[in-house]
Amino acid sequence: MTSLSPQQTLKEVFGFDDFRGGQQAVVSSVLDGHSTAAIFATGAGKSLCYQLPALHLPHLILVVSPLLALMQDQLAFLARHGVAAASIDSTQDRDTTRDVMERAKSGELKILMVSVERLKNERFRHFLRQVPISLLVIDEAHCLSEWGHNFRPDYLKLPDYQRDFAIPQVLLLTATATAAVIADMREKFAIAPENVITTGFYRANLALLVAPAMENRQQQLIDWLKPQMPPGNEAPTIIYVTLQQTAEQVASALAAQGIAAQAYHAGLDSARRDEIQRQFMSGESPCIVATIAFGMGIDKANIRNVVHFDLPKSIENYSQEIGRAGRDGLPSTCLTIAGRDGLRVLENFVYGDTPEYAGILRLLEEISSAGQAPDRQWEVLLNTLSRDINIRLLPLKTLLVRLEMHGIIAPRFAFLAEYRLRYHVEPTALVGRFEGERAAFVRLLIDNIAIARTWGTVDFERLHQAGQTQRIDASRARVITALEYFQDKGWLTLEGKRMTDVYDICQPRFSVEALASQLYNECLNREQIEIERLGSMLALFESDTCLTRRLAEHFGDNTFSNNTFESPSLPEQGRCGHCSVCYGHPVRLPDTPPQSALLDNDFIRYATPFIQRHTEQLGLPPNAQRLAHFLCGLTMPIFTPLKARSINGFAVFEQRSYPEVREWVAGYLER
User: Fold this and answer.
1) Distance separating alpha carbons of residues 336 and 309, to the nearest angstrom
2) What is the largest CA-CA distance in the chain?
3) Which domains are delineated in the chain?
4) What is the pLDDT of residues 130-170, one digit of tens each?
5) In the chain, fewer beta carbons within 10 Å around the N or the C end?
6) How far apart are CA 389 and CA 363, in angstroms?
């Protein structure tokens, strides 16, 4: 702990003369021992709200962050300012992870950053119980609310973890929390109303423009952007699109017009993405055309334009993405080229996450069956289960968390189902390093792990049986402990794969059908919420009232109605003066052109090939939901073994409404 005052720490450690916005209020609340929520606009300095208290609180600060890129940026900042901080993540080797844990145990480390998934690891939870923790920080805290736009099921367990690790207080950080989300966060962590600090969402330097999409949207973008891109003095610009192929197409069209643009999306390998991001951050590349894979953790102060070539996924996503513009305080433009043509794709993404009722039923039948075993334990390989019951991974994880909250299952631990090893020393030489029963145990390992060329696979059942014969403890736990010790000594390399989660079945007798119906209805309710979220976004862009005001009020910021702007530049109460509506250009988005009716010939041409392959390989025809997924190009685990993408008809109705296609398919199948 430092003897400096918070104000002195701000100046001497971090080099800032004054706190910004609500930073001082948050820091004071945390240092006074209160659980606190900080709802700050993107780029308003949320991270300092835990970085500074870390130097004043007695024990470790545990930060849960959703993205590795966010962690690395924060760690680099802390390293520059001499604050002892580290992360534990999946990219590290065992030695690095062990070193971080030892630094945390010794009290040297002030801040430890992890993903929420790390907390599922039983060994890691055991480690945390040995380390006193002053504060749990949850970044992107809206993820823990089902009313939030980016709900992540594992976040729901964070209140339990706080109790489990006896952490006295929490700090929730987010840039996008509506009144419902704030209420949800407060309830889950017992945060008093006075300890919710909101900075407001109004930024006087951002012009919010909406333009109706023209027939040639690419040319519309080029005509708007090209005057801002004179060689050598280009305006740094991010252009957001929905699909990877659109990113490539738009970047190529811009490049053909002499605008140096690069596509950025999840389909590129990580090295290429890192290079593109580095070039953009350094100014070498002025324009990025990106899916939403780009932007989290980006802190480039001089971004002059954020353009939405396609509709954003929600008002919350829109707010986050435009928040990356103009962090240097200079005038910046946020342009949305809005049309209803992309709405169907976004809606279909929502429908694509709703699992089949039959899949939920199979999941519950498997749990019920495991509950009849004497130990009432259920071992799960998530990827295998996802494929077997045909539920995508994220919806499956959500269902498992819901089942935890219903008290049906409880996570015990996770283990790697398969191990293989490669020796770095002569195996027989290992025996000589031990004596007595330990030497016999090592000999048993060497004799029963067959090496094929250089690698050998560990057969735990064979080792256990050999141990029983020789009256040697060769249990799985002892074998893994020994092999990890050998790896630590540098005597061999050990690799594990096929992560297996083990759950206790807490309620072995439940009504499978009744619970399946309840869970399916919850999924449908979630689907409806997301569809309504898209409708709210369209309503924002078609607003007759100030866009900036509408956006602020969506997040509960009443700055406009209270007329408490810090900026003296506002022309009148309730108007920002720098959006499309205030400029006198409210927008009416044209309806999408009517599409031709779906005909019997369309079904025969596009649906029949998939029905035939599905029936041949699985022994039964697909249901209406599965067939509609195929025709709309929405992936399902079952599509991989069926090689559905290669079948004529896949995604042929990508631009049509999923409910329309499903209803048409169901009607045809019922004939």
Assistant:
1) 6
2) 89
3) 6-200 (3.40.50.300), 206-338+544-562 (3.40.50.300), 425-490 (no CATH), 600-669 (no CATH)
4) 899 999 999 989 888 766 667 777 888 899 899 989 999 99
5) C
6) 7
